[in-house]
Design brief:
Keywords: Phenylalanine catabolism, Tyrosine catabolism. It is an enzyme of class 5 (isomerase). Pfam families: GST_C_3, GST_N_2. Pathway: Amino-acid degradation; L-phenylalanine degradation; acetoacetate and fumarate from L-phenylalanine: step 5/6. One of its GO terms (biological process) is L-phenylalanine catabolic process. By secondary structure, the protein is an alpha+beta fold. The protein folds into two domains: about 90 residues, Glutaredoxin; about 110 residues, Glutathione S-transferase Yfyf (Class Pi), Chain A, domain 2, CATH 1.20.1050. The protein is built from ten helices and four strands. The protein has a four-stranded mixed sheet, with helices on one face. Strand 3 and strand 4 form a beta hairpin. Helix 1 runs antiparallel to helix 7, helix 4 packs antiparallel against helix 6 and helix 6 runs antiparallel to helix 7. It is globular.
């Protein structure tokens, strides 16, 4: 018998975790979130967690009797197995544009914001300077891409996987680096539109922190 319970192993402030949290909410999939403190206690580095995710990162999702890791693989699996409501555009070109945006975020911005880089860059100042540079470069790329595709959201007026990826990363850039999104007007417009959606209000890190009663 396949286990019906869905368990998300995540860190409340992790952008990758927020992607999966938002995806589960968008598909109305009930789930339990189990906190993994990757900053203070380093729970992800324990052997117990390694048995869940060999990469010792967040998120990991237990669903349909299996455990999946890597947020983009997880959200694509959810889309493939729970196609309604649809979070993929209708045409091949629109889907390619969506993937351009997703890849810019998950390959060109997020890894270069990762807290794990801090110990390799020596000081907090060097880490923040490095991540700010690459975030700004990525945002300019996004702004140019969205000029071709956006309506209210990344791809016209339909929420897609691109939006699932975009909001957490922009939030990271704004909250961590105090970036002024006026420099990226199209990114800013899409981001502000999406933040008004119940999907992002319900899964926002602040709402998650309060729900899980996480004390810093």
């Amino acid at each position: 018998m396949v286990e019906n319970r869905v368990i998300l192993h995540a860190y409340w402030l992790s952008s990758c975790s927020w992607r999966v949290r938002a995806m589960l909410h968008a598909k109305s999939i009930p789930f339990e979130e189990r906190p993994v403190d990757i900053v203070k206690t380093g729970k992800q580095l324990t052997e117990e967690y390694r048995a869940i995710n060999p990469a010792q990162k967040v998120p990991a999702l237990e669903i349909d009797g299996v455990t999946l890791v890597e947020s983009t693989a997880i959200i694509q699996y959810i889309e493939d197995t729970r196609p309604e409501p649809k979070l993929m555009p209708d045409t091949a070109l629109q889907r390619a544009r969506m993937r351009e945006i997703c890849e810019t975020i998950v390959s060109g911005i997020q890894p270069l914001q990762n807290f794990g880089l801090k110990k390799h860059l020596g000081t907090e100042e060097k880490f923040l300077s490095f991540t700010k540079y690459w975030t700004e470069r990525g945002l300019q790329t996004l702004n140019d891409l969205l000029a071709k595709t956006s309506g209210a959201y990344c791809i016209g007026d339909q929420i897609t996987l691109a939006d699932i990826c975009l909001v957490p990363q922009i939030y990271n850039g704004v909250s961590r680096h105090k970036l002024d999104l006026k420099t990226y007007p199209i990114v800013s417009k899409v981001y502000e539109n999406l933040l008004k959606e119940e999907l992002y209000q319900a899964t926002h890190p602040k709402a998650t922190k309060e729900k899980l009663k996480i004390n810093l």
